[in-house]
Design a protein that fits this description.
The complex is a heterodimer of chains A (272) and B (416). Chain A is built from nine helices and ten strands. Chain A is of the alpha+beta class and 272 residues long. Chain A folds into two domains: 216 residues, 2-Layer Sandwich (Alpha-Beta Plaits); 32 residues. In chain A, the strands form four sheets. Chain A has a three-stranded mixed beta sheet. In chain A, a hairpin with an 8-residue loop joins β6 and β7. The longest helix of chain A has 22 residues. The termini of chain A are far apart. Chain B is mostly helical and 416 residues long. Chain B has one domain: Up-down Bundle (Formate dehydrogenase/DMSO reductase fold). Chain B has 15 helices and three strands. In chain B, β1 and β2 form a beta hairpin. In chain B, α3 packs antiparallel against α13, α5 packs antiparallel against α14 and α8 crosses α9. The two termini of chain B are 28 Å apart. The chains are: A alpha+beta (272), B mainly alpha (416). The interface between A and B is large, with 77 and 98 residues. β10 of chain A pairs antiparallel with β3 of chain B, so a sheet runs across the interface.
């Protein structure tokens, strides 16, 4: 029985050191671009990129009338029922039983429908390559299936990232919220968002102020598509039968036409 | 029908044609392939060549080198316009097939082949655009073997590929009238009902699926356009657009080749479009009300204004124009209304792809001149292929037959 793993990010514990960002790059062999430095969290505009699968975003907001600054680690949320994987018509994106949603470039067609589908806007495309890939956090699939933590979680010096069975992580989050109701907002981001995600967040500032998307549906997104798609075979057979019926019925009354005598190639000699 | 046999126009006796008599009937057959080169056509050829060069550049240096696409805007002009609109505009093929060949409304026969032709070329153009747009094009065949059936794109991909093949089969029936190959022609002709029916079922499925593509963007597409009914809206509009598209094509072809437009066919087709558009409008309003977003259409935002323009100028106005006999029975009237219908469907698709996604996508996208050049090249190719085919294959109705029928049916003169 494979364990369904997950991570819990406690925003109150993150100091924005970006050890996770460095660890991610080292483990996944992501080369930094030219003129690129670490420590972008200080600018507050770190963006995910094909060679940056996780970033730490710095957010300034207010709490109890006081200016506060929080750091938000961003990466793929690894939905329990990922929209991107359901959108992929070549099975290049798949949810693994251990939790990670992983990308297989061998199967990818490069249509980018996954990027339209992702409710969090996480996926990145190698626009400058002749044979571009869609890249995102793989939740260190190799490490996780070996029973290790993802590189970022292992590198975190403050304990802001906890890793384990997703059920345990949900429990842990609830315990922390209960133990410190004055500190936390009381919400667990990712518990139900997009039908639940493998990465969970708790925070002492409202999530919408920290750049989280709060408009994400609470039920699994592939369900919406499936509600429509499941009619396909019935439409195919039913509509086909109806058309055949109409065809045969109206044909009896139709006149016989010599189609070959009705049409001719246009003579362009007198044309424009 | 028999009595309306082709009479031999005098001019056909000259030039590179051969006439021969068989059993008292006169047939005219062109001997060579013809394609007249005019200044306009040279310009179109130039556009096509430019597009070929730009696409070669794109294949070597990647999408980023020629497009403004980015991670916020993964789909741009080629998907939004060439693919979504191209396929929708090709809707004339399946709606005409349904009306003419399944319901056997034979007064519309004169336009049937032209509709099929435009549809076929439209699909080929859309497939070429798609091929240009996908990043890892050498993998394009993967979905045939790795069945991601839970993806709408899977259905779209299968249906569009199969339908293109079906259309080639349907066209084969015409092709072998020109290129004599009796045995193949006989086989094709015998199986034509099968191709016709499958050729309506498949586009019904993928026209709606092109809308279903956006069902997954539930928190991203503006609620004025996002709906669980979006597949219905897409297939319905692609269907009612068909007659309008046929009207435009027919008028333009008539003008280009100095023929008489099939006016009675056009004005009678407006009934189909008008009633379907009324249903479309009613369902839209009910759907907006049901989802509780009706008032959003009037909140003055960019989205709401674009939506209102779409509904009033491109749906309500053509309905009114089609409803008034003095407008729909005039060529300018039916032509203008049809242009509005077609423009309206394009406007709707653009709103779904761009306007409706703008707020949630963030970032910025406007196509580069290269993207636009490729799009222009695609549509130029469409016109050139259309001209070549109608000039060399029996696509348009024989002229004397049309003018005879139209003068009988309406007794009016047409001025354009």
């Amino acid at each position: 029985m494979t364990r369904n793993m997950g991570a819990l990010v406690d925003i109150t514990k993150c100091i924005g050191c970006e050890s996770c960002v460095v660890a991610c790059r080292l483990y996944n062999g992501l080369e930094p671009g030219q003129d690129e430095e670490y420590g972008t969290a200080r600018d507050g505009n770190a963006e995910l990129a094909p060679n940056k699968w996780t970033v730490v975003q710095s957010c300034r907001t207010e709490k109890n009338g006081k200016q506060i600054r929080r750091f938000v680690k961003q990466q793929c949320f690894h939905c329990l029922e990922p929209a991107c994987a359901s959108a992929c018509f070549a099975k290049a994106l798949q949810k693994t039983p251990a939790g990670p949603v992983v990308y297989n470039e061998k199967l990818c067609v490069g249509c980018r429908y996954c990027m339209i589908a992702c409710p969090f806007g996480i996926l990145r495309f190698e626009w400058d390559k002749p044979f571009p890939r869609v890249l995102k956090c793989q939740m260190c699939l190799g490490r996780v299936t070996d029973g290790q933590m993802p590189a970022c979680a292992a590198a975190c010096p403050t304990g802001a990232i906890t890793f384990g069975d997703r059920d345990k992580m949900v429990e842990e989050a609830k315990n922390r919220l209960a133990a410190n109701p004055d500190l936390y907002t009381g919400q667990i981001y990712g518990l139900k968002d997009a039908g639940g995600t493998s990465w969970l967040y708790i925070s002492d500032a409202p999530f919408e102020q920290l750049g989280f998307r709060t408009d994400v549906p609470q039920k699994p997104i592939p369900e919406y598509t499936w509600q429509v798609l499941r009619w396909t075979p019935f439409i195919f057979v039913g509509w086909g039968a109806l058309l055949t019926g109409m065809y045969l019925y109206t044909k009896r009354r139709a006149g016989v036409h010599e189609e070959e005598e009705m049409y001719a190639a246009v003579d362009d000699d007198d044309g424009k | 029908m028999r009595k309306k046999k082709c009479t031999l126009p005098l001019m056909m006796m000259t030039g590179n044609k051969k006439t021969f008599k068989t059993g008292g009937e006169v047939f005219v057959q062109k001997k060579h392939w013809t394609f007249r080169i005019t200044g306009f056509r040279l310009l179109l050829i130039l556009f096509v060549l430019t597009a070929v060069v730009v696409s070669l550049y794109r294949f070597i240096f990647g999408l980023g080198s020629v497009t403004n696409l980015n991670d916020q805007w993964p789909w741009g002009l080629w998907i939004g316009f060439d693919l979504l609109c191209g396929i929708a505009l090709a809707g004339g093929g399946f709606s005409t097939a349904l009306i003419v060949h399944v319901l056997h409304k034979e007064k519309y026969l004169p336009i049937a082949r032209a509709a099929l032709l435009t549809s076929l070329i439209g699909y080929i153009i859309a497939l070429v655009s798609l091929f240009l747009d996908i990043g890892r094009w050498y993998n394009f065949w993967r979905p045939f073997f790795f069945w991601g059936y839970h993806s709408v794109l899977f259905e779209v991909f299968w249906c569009i590929s199969l339908y293109t093949i079906v259309q080639i089969m349907e066209f084969g029936d015409i092709f072998f009238e020109r290129v004599r190959f009796p045995s193949l022609k006989r086989i094709l002709h015998a199986t034509i009902p099968f191709w016709l029916i499958i050729g309506i079922v498949l586009p019904t499925l993928h026209q709606s699926s092109l809308g279903s593509l956006y069902v997954i963007a539930v928190n991203r597409l503006d609620p004025l356009w996002w709906s669980m009914l979006i597949p219905f809206f897409f297939v319905w509009s692609a269907f009612f657009l068909g007659p309008a598209m046929v009207t435009i094509e027919g008028t333009l072809a008539a003008r280009a080749y100095g023929r008489v437009p099939e006016m009675p066919v056009f004005s009678s087709l407006t009934k189909v479009t008008m009633w379907m558009m009324i249903v479309y409008l009613v369902v839209k309003v009910i759907d907006l009300n049901y989802r509780g977003v009706f008032t959003q259409a009037f909140n003055g935002s960019l989205e709401s204004n674009m939506f209102l323009i779409e509904m009033i100028v491109f749906v309500l106005l053509p309905i009114v124009m089609y409803a008034v006999p003095s407008i729909r029975n005039k060529l300018w009237g039916v032509f203008t209304a049809s242009v509005l219908v077609v423009a309206g469907v394009v406007f709707n698709r653009m709103n779904v792809v761009f306007t409706g996604m703008a707020k949630s996508a963030g970032g910025h996208y406007f196509p580069t001149e290269w993207e636009i050049l490729i799009t222009i090249g695609m549509w130029s190719a469409l016109i050139l292929i259309y001209c070549f085919v109608v000039e060399n294959f029996p696509i348009l109705p024989k002229e004397d037959l049309v003018s005879h029928e139209s003068s009988m049916a309406s007794g009016q003169t047409v001025n354009i």
